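Inverse folding, one chain.
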């Protein structure tokens, strides 16, 4: 009877030891899984670096006028980022989808509203009317899996941006060494014919 008891105790001890090892292994495996819940913290970062939401000059919906309305994206890393399938959308859900485009390291690309020929530094949505609302809107960038990457808002003080962050020409953003082409020094916007607002 005593031999049976020793045998049972030995088996129980072995089971407990095996369970402890299994728990340690599961705990170790679980760490990368939790880290995978936040992939964008460690991956390449692309940000909306500037927005020209109110095209300067006369707003006649010509390609020239529409192409003065744009959003800039900047790759802040030292690695090329494949933007194929990424999207850029406004608050109403009007969406531009990137096709076969790679953003070089530390590079900036400008996405114009109107028609044009795509290059490494300039892409065109080929639209025939404005996308970005002059008074209040949000540009949202998502990756090819539909996951949020970055956004920028104006007119409703999101992200702590006040009216001082936007100049009188309807421009928000950081200076990346590119001038704002065709900017109208008269600054016609809220009350002039040059502005547009959605119904």
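Residues assigned per position:
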């Amino acid at each position: 009877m005593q031999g049976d008891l020793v045998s049972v105790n030995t088996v129980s001890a072995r089971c407990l030891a095996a369970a402890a090892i299994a728990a340690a292994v599961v705990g170790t495996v679980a760490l990368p899984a939790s880290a995978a819940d936040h992939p964008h913290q460690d991956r390449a970062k692309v940000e909306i670096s500037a927005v020209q939401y109110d095209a300067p000059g006369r707003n006649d919906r010509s390609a020239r006028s529409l192409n003065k309305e744009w959003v800039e994206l900047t790759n802040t890393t030292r690695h090329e980022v494949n933007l194929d399938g990424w999207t850029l959308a406004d608050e109403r859900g009007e969406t531009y989808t990137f096709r076969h485009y790679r953003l070089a390291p530390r590079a900036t690309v400008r996405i114009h509203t109107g028609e044009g020929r795509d290059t490494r530094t300039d892409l065109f949505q080929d639209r025939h009317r404005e996308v970005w609302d002059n008074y209040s809107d949000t540009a949202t960038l998502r990756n090819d899996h539909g996951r949020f990457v970055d956004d920028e808002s104006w007119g409703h003080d999101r992200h702590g941006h006040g009216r001082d962050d936007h100049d009188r020409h309807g421009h928000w953003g950081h200076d990346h060494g590119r001038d704002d082409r065709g900017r109208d020094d008269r600054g016609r916007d809220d009350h002039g014919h040059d502005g547009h607002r959605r119904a």
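Confidence is low (pLDDT under 50) at residues 5-11, 21-42, 158-169, 174-195. The helical segments are 2-35, 63-66.
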